[in-house]
Amino acid sequence: MSTRQFYSSLSEQLAGLLSGERDWLANTANASALLFMELEDINWAGFYFLHGDELSLGPFQGKPACTRIPVGAGVCGTAVASGEAQLVEDVHQFPGHIACDAVSASEVVIPLYAGDRCLGVLDIDSPTVARFSADDLAGLQQFAQVLLESSDLSAA
C-alpha cells in the first residue's frame, strides 16, 4: 500500500470513528489513539490547544509531555506563529527546539484552523531522524481536516 493510500484509509477510519460525535475532547482523544496505533516508528502523537499566547497540552498517546509551549517556541510554537505546518527531519538541529522527550529525533506539526483562527496543533514525534516525508505531511493534513470537519474544536 502506498503512503497516499495508507493516509486515505487512515482518514476514512477517523471519519467512521468520529461519525455522530462532535465533542472536541472525545474526538481528539480517539484521533491521537488511532495515530499512535496505526503509524509506525512514532513515540508521541497528540494535540496542543491555543489559549492566549501559549499552547496547552491536550489528548495524546506516548510519554508525558510539556504542558505549556509559548507561541513561537519550539516546533509547535513555530507552527502557530508562522501559520504553517512544520516537517522537521532532525529536531536537535531546529533552533529553539523544546526537548519534552530526549528520544524524539524528528517531528511533524500541523496547525489546526477554523477559518483564519488557529485553534492548536496536531503534533507527532518519532525517535528516527527523517521519519516523516512530504507524503506523510500531506496525509496528516488530510487526517487533520477530517478531524476539524467532524469536531467542535473551537470549544477546546
Overview of the structural elements:
The protein has a single domain (23-151), classed as 2-Layer Sandwich (Beta-Lactamase), CATH 3.30.450. A hairpin with a 5-residue loop joins strand 2 (54-62) and strand 3 (68-70). It is an alpha+beta fold and 156 residues long. The chain is globular and about 40 Å long. It has helices at 3-18, 24-38, 74-82, 134-150, and strands spanning 44-51, 54-62, 68-70, 86-88, 106-114, 117-126. The termini are far apart. The model has no long low-confidence stretch (mean pLDDT 95).
Please describe the structure with a list of short key phrases separated by commas or semicolons:
alpha+beta, 156 residues, 4 helices, six-stranded antiparallel beta sheet
Strand order of the largest sheet: 3-2-1-6-5-4
CATH architecture: 2-Layer Sandwich
Count of domains? 1
Cα-based radius of gyration, to the nearest Å:
14 Å
Strand/helix succession: HHEEEHEEEH
Q: Distance between the terminal alpha carbons, to the nearest Å?
A: 35 Å
User: Beta-strand level of the residues, as a percent range?
Assistant: 25-35%
Helix content: 25-40%
Number of helical regions: 4
CATH class: Alpha Beta
- Ranges where pLDDT stays below 50 over 5 or more residues in a row are none
CATH superfamily: GAF domain
Structural class: alpha+beta
Largest sheet: 6 strands, antiparallel
pLDDT average, as an integer?
95
Global geometry: globular
Fold-level CATH name: Beta-Lactamase
